[in-house]
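Hey team,

Filing this mostly as a record. A colleague (T.K.) asked me to run one chain through the structure pipeline before their review meeting, and I want the input and output archived in the tracker in case anyone asks later how it was produced. No errors, nothing strange. Just documentation.

Input sequence:
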Amino acid sequence: MSNKEIKVGDFVLPRMSGIIEQGDPAYVVEEITDEGKYRIVQTIGSYQHRMELPKEKLNRL
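Output structure:
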């Protein structure tokens, strides 16, 4: 994992089994909440999948 801080606009992969499959696009950090959670979004065509996860569950690309 990179030593750089995760910020809005960074590409990340969630560290949760069954969420991302090989060939799926990465998630983009959309917002960092006041509670310190990261709101991420994955866009496939017009479909968008959003999740809110803590920093410990994200890998920065």
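Quick notes for T.K.: The two ends are 8 Å apart (CA to CA). Residues 39 and 57 are 12 Å apart (CA to CA).
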